């Protein structure tokens, strides 16, 4: 069976909190390193980019070990699971790319979320055995909740990102664009 059959994005870590990493910066970030080269709108530049863990199985050491072994097997067979969340001044993009067996099986998914449709954002952190941390982010739109487990992001950076997206939600409510 192909190792890519598991769903790359799981909302399991969001159970403890309400409800694809580069450091948060005020200046626009280069789009390099994205799993998919999206079609940018006129004048659109990425402001923030988060990279997610597509192999998240759970916060326990055994689940993390199994995910690491699965990731190793995927890599040595020429595959990958890459998920990124890109925030621009006009929209939020969820980019997902999976590949198995040196490209024998490939899939790419681009989801565009209008800023006016974002209703809620949140983050969660799980600590297991005092040292194994899992950080997750969620964005709720009018139709769906998107949950991702983020990689290589500090608590402060994750809080900063969630607060910046929350500011968009508040601005949508104040301007009457949110319903």
Helix and strand pattern: EHEEEEEEH
Largest sheet: 4 strands, antiparallel
Tell me the fraction of residues in β-strands, as a range.
35-45%
Poorly predicted runs of 5 or more residues: 1-30
Q: Can you give the mean pLDDT?
A: 77
N-C termini distance: 44 Å
Q: How large is the count of helical segments?
A: 2
Shape: globular
- Helix content, binned percent: 10-25%
Broad structural category:
alpha+beta
- Rg, rounded, reads 16 Å
Q: In which order are the strands of the major sheet placed?
A: 1-2-3-4
List the helices and strands and how they pair.
Blueprint: E1 46-52, H1 61-76, E2 80-88, E3 91-100, E4 105-114, E5 118-128, E6 132-141, E7 145-150, H2 155-175
Note down, in words, how this protein is organized.
The chain is α+β, with helices and mostly antiparallel strands. It contains two helices and seven strands, in the order E-H-E-E-E-E-E-E-H. Strand 3 and strand 4 form a beta hairpin. Helices cover 21% and strands 35% of the residues. The longest helix has 21 residues. The N terminus is likely disordered. The strands form two sheets. A four-stranded antiparallel β-sheet has the order 1-2-3-4. A three-stranded antiparallel β-sheet has the order 5-6-7, covered by helices on one side.
């Amino acid at each position: 069976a192909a190792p890519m059959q598991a769903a790359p994005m799981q909302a399991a870590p969001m159970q403890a909190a309400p409800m694809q990493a580069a450091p948060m910066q005020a200046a626009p970030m280069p789009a390099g390193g994205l799993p998919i080269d999206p079609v940018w709108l006129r004048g659109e530049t990425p402001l923030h980019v988060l990279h997610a863990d597509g192999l998240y199985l759970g916060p326990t050491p055994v689940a993390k070990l199994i995910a690491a072994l699965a990731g190793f097997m995927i890599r040595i067979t020429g595959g990958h699971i890459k998920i990124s969340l890109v925030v621009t001044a006009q929209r939020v993009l969820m980019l997902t790319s999976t590949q198995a067996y040196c490209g024998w099986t490939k899939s790419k998914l681009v989801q565009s979320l209008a800023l006016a449709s974002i209703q809620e954002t949140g983050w969660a952190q799980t600590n297991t055995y005092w040292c194994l941390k899992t950080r997750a982010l969620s964005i709720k739109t009018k139709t769906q909740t998107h949950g991702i487990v983020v990689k290589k992001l500090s608590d402060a950076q994750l809080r900063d990102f969630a607060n910046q997206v929350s500011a968009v939600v508040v601005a949508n409510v104040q301007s009457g664009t949110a319903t």
